[in-house]
Amino acid sequence: METIELDGVKIFIKKKSMKHMYLRVLPPDGQVFVTAPYSFSDEEIREFIFSKRRWIWEQKKRFESRADFVKTQYATGERCYLWGKEYELFVQDSTRPYKVSLLENRIVMQIGKNSTIQQREQLVNEWYRMQLKQAIPSVLQKCEKRTGLIANEWRIKNMKTRWGTCNIAKKRIWLNLQLAKKPPECLEYVVIHELVHLLERGHNARFYGYMSRFYPEWKSVRERLNKNY
Question: How many CB atoms lie within 10 A of CB 13?
């Protein structure tokens, strides 16, 4: 079974003896599958998937909303990740200023006793944002040197369906806040992915040719990026 990526979403493709192409987004976590006739070219399949991208995102959000009850509670003993490493979360009652710190094998959150899940999530996300802000400049410089492509600016946003986006006209790239949880090479892969969009807008053979030229290991890194944590 082959795979392609559309805006950070991994899509599984299988070819069979059939007349029409079918797209499915399956529970519990919204994995995307395409079944296509043998006669369809890779380009035709990519165009079909691209035409359905909005529907795919809507379906994935629907599954995510159904799974809200299993989302983290930001409580002591839960798992947290930073740059691909797993840590135990320890929540400590504290007066202001509230903060999150990495202490040996723990991520320690100091926050008020009566804080809500939303307040804890916001505090953790602010900490992830700080980690990402510190990491991006050197990674971006390395990727720009490798590709010869320059972004005018970069920004961070907490996104549910994409690891990054590129505003081609303004040469601005957006990076997903959640990349701070992933191994460092995943950030490098996403930065190069978005820079390549300055050369090629679509996810086509030309685009992936550039990816293989600038970042030969991109497929294996993409696999690590899309692991569920």
Answer: 19
Tokens representing 116 are: 């809500």
Are 23 and 33 within 8 A, CB to CB?
yes
Q: pLDDT tens across 142-194, in order?
A: 999 999 999 999 999 998 778 999 999 999 999 999 999 999 999 999 999 99
User: To 5 degrees, how large is the angle CA 7–CA 8–CA 9?
Assistant: 95
Q: In three state form, how does the secondary structure of the chain look?
A: CEEEEECCEEEEEEEECCCCCEEEEECCCCEEEEEEECCCCHHHHHHHHHHCHHHHHHHHHHHHHHCHHHCCCCCCCCEEEECCEEEEEEEEECCCCCEEEEECCEEEEEECCCCCHHHHHHHHHHHHHHHHHHHHHHHHHHHHHHHCCCCCEEEEECCCCCCEEEECCCCEEEEEHHHHHCCHHHHHHHHHHHHHCCCCCCCCHHHHHHHHHHCCCHHHHHHHHCCCC
